[in-house]
């Protein structure tokens, strides 16, 4: 079954041969089937009745697909290999059939090799270990991933300070690293991927050690994509508000996917240089290189000098699309923005790689400074003040998203929320993502057939259908004994801060399921008592009284608990006196990294520990406790 938005888009484009950004209702059944969601004809016709103009956009298709997936809970189907495609084949065991043969894209492998070599070229450890540069030929990339060091470095490159690299197991003077040490590195890599919001399913440390190409490339793309898309936000680029149409709100911008924002950004830049072309996708719309030629001219900074295919009219007289693409990439190289795509990737319309190329270009040269004074409404002074106040409100909300909201968002995405959650308060309004999560934390608790309303939501009555979903989510929470006084479906649909109260209790419920004892869910005081007993038993004196205990800020109790569970794992020489905020942060980062290294799935940030956030503190100790439980059961 197709999983990622990129793969879904590729399937969608098969039924959009003219690159209009839409498919006809006649193609819907086949498009859903291509994504692994086969529906009876009458159900397809029921859905199509809602689209009177006979067309369905990609965003509408994504909602339909998500609704079909959740409502019918269909199983993954594996398709036979299309031998006509240029792919590499990775065979399974001798008993495997053609139906379980895995494939991977050579183009993607080459693009990722180039990106890794570029991003990590200054890493002295990797140079000393002779792990860089990675050769493009053969399986050099997969061999480089074998010991887990490279994967952890890439996680840090995408989301800084996720991994304390001091905790990595490094080869000895002879270049040797035991399989046990490699296993620890890969366990750390997987848990760190989860912590930044990767959806890691059916992948274990051994799969990475064995360097299974299709799994490695899938995980690499998630890591790279998260890093590329992280800065495509109002918080990092306030000028993005210039991309809104006259009657659109900031809420609508927040609800857009990074792909949608990038399409708007490209069109905005094209308009600046007088190009009449517009893009709706990064497949068919960019194949002739015209868009890229104008885009590079639009974003080229003054200190790089004017670039451009001079004269442009001669460029467009070139009929060979490959030669056009090569000229475009030469210009991209002139501003050090050539990445991910080669000429053939542009001409073939490789969605994943072209998306990455444009995202990287945006990150390097957003060229939105002139949009800094943009006003959505510019009539009276009172209206301008209103717009400024509204923007301040959103920027404040986005700034606060960097803590509890971020941890919970990454937790939701790690469980496979579809589509990915970008902003908790915007993306949970229809209730579907919350209901998906309920089905993850308490399998089977959601009645998808009778109680859940799925897209498309009609203009008339659609809001009520979404609120019904949200009310159902509240109902499920109460069945699980959540404290939801004063919270109803309207709060969730309106993006109220109370949404976080529900999500937090879901995260807490999920975490506590890891440490049930004789079918009983442990309480906070029982968790604290167990941790203190372990710490004392190991000869340490870092006991704590509750999850608000100020002494927890130095991370000693956490590392002592890890040492009690896995003796010899903690290097106490790396701990500081925690006499200031910087030292507390360093200790916390090391403690979280070591916890993940022994198998704890922790979503808390170092700041949560340094500031003693009691909610996240509970999850840290509970997750480490789950590792201790598992070890005791093995005994």
Notable characteristics:
two-stranded antiparallel sheet; 4 strands; 30 helices; 635 residues; mainly alpha
Strand segment tally: 4
Largest sheet: 2 strands, antiparallel
* Mean pLDDT metric: 85
Shape: globular
Return residue spans where pLDDT drops below 50 for at least 5 consecutive residues.
73-86, 91-100, 371-387, 396-400
N- and C-termini, Cα separation: 39 Å
Strand order of the largest sheet: 1-2
Structural class: mainly alpha
Give a structural overview.
The structure is a single chain. By secondary structure, the chain is an all-alpha fold. It is built from 30 helices and four strands. It has helices spanning 5-14, 28-34, 41-48, 58-72, 106-119, 124-128, 140-144, 149-158, 179-195, 205-209, 213-229, 250-255, 258-272, 290-299, 312-316, 321-334, 343-348, 351-364, 381-400, 404-414, 424-427, 432-441, 462-479, 489-493, 499-512, 524-537, 556-565, 581-597, 606-610, 614-634, and strands at residues 22-24, 55-57, 88-90, 102-104. Helix 13 crosses helix 18 (351-364) and helix 14 (290-299) runs parallel beside helix 16 (321-334). The chain is globular and about 80 Å long. Mean pLDDT is 85; it is low at 73-86, 91-100, 371-387 and 396-400.
Put the structure in a nutshell:
With 635 residues, the chain is mainly alpha-helical.
């Amino acid at each position: 079954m197709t999983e990622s938005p990129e793969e879904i888009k590729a399937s969608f484009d098969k039924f959009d041969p003219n690159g209009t950004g839409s498919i006809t209702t006649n193609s819907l059944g086949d498009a859903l089937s291509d994504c692994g969601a086969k529906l009876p004809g009458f159900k397809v016709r029921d859905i199509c009745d809602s689209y009177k103009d006979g067309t369905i956009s990609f965003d509408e298709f994504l909602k339909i697909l998500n609704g079909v997936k959740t409502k019918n809970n269909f199983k993954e189907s594996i398709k036979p290999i299309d031998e006509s495609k240029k792919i590499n084949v990775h065979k399974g065991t001798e008993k495997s059939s053609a139906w379980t043969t895995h494939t991977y894209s050579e183009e993607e492998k080459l693009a990722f090799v180039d990106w890794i070599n570029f991003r990590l070229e200054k890493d002295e450890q990797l140079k000393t270990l002779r792990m860089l540069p990675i050769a493009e030929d053969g399986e050099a990339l997969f061999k480089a991933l074998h010991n887990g060091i490279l994967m952890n470095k890439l996680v840090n490159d995408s989301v800084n300070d996720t991994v304390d690299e001091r905790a990595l197991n490094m080869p000895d003077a002879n270049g040797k690293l035991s399989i046990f040490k490699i296993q620890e590195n890969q366990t750390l890599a997987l848990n760190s991927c989860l912590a930044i919001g990767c959806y890691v399913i059916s992948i274990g440390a051994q799969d990475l050690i064995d360097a299974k190409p299709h799994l490695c490339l899938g995980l690499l793309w998630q890591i790279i994509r998260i890093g590329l898309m992280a800065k495509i936000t109002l918080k990092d680029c306030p000028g993005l508000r210039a991309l809104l149409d006259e009657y659109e709100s900031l809420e609508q911008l927040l609800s857009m996917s990074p792909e949608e924002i990038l399409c708007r950004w490209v069109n905005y830049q094209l308009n600046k240089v007088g190009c009449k072309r517009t893009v709706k996708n990064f497949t068919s719309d960019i194949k002739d290189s015209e868009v890229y030629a104008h885009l590079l001219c639009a974003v080229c900074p003054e200190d790089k000098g004017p670039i451009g295919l001079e004269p442009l009219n001669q460029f467009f007289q070139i009929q060979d699309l490959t030669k056009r693409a090569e000229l475009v990439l030469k210009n991209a190289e002139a501003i050090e923005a050539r990445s991910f795509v080669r000429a053939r990737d542009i001409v073939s319309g490789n969605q994943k790689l072209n998306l990455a190329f444009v995202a990287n270009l945006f990150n390097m040269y957003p060229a939105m400074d002139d949009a800094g004074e943009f006003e959505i409404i510019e009539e009276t002074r009172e209206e301008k003040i209103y717009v400024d106040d509204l923007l301040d409100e959103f920027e404040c909300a986005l700034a606060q998203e960097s803590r509890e909201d971020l941890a919970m968002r990454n937790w939701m995405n790690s469980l496979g929320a579809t589509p990915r959650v970008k902003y908790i308060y915007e993306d949970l309004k229809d209730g579907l993502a919350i209901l998906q999560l309920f089905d993850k934390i308490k399998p089977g608790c959601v009645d998808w057939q009778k109680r859940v309303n799925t897209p498309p939501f009609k203009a008339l009555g659609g809001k009520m259908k979404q609120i019904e979903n949200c009310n159902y989510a509240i109902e499920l929470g109460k069945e699980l004994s959540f404290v939801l006084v004063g919270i109803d479906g309207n709060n969730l649909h309106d993006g109220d801060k109370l949404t976080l109260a529900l999500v937090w209790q879901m995260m807490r419920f999920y975490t506590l399921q890891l440490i049930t004892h004789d079918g009983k869910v442990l309480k906070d005081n029982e968790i604290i008592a167990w941790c203190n007993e372990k710490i004392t038993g190991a000869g340490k004196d870092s006991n704590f009284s509750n999850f608000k205990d100020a002494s927890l800020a130095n991370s000693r109790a956490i590392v002592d608990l890890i040492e009690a569970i896995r003796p010899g794992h903690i290097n106490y020489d790396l701990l500081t006196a925690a006499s200031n905020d910087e030292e507390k942060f360093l200790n916390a980062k090391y403690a979280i990294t070591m916890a993940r290294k022994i198998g704890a799935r922790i979503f808390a940030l170092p700041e949560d520990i340094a500031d003693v956030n009691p909610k996240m503190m509970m999850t840290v100790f509970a997750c480490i406790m789950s590792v201790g439980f598992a070890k005791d059961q093995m005994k």
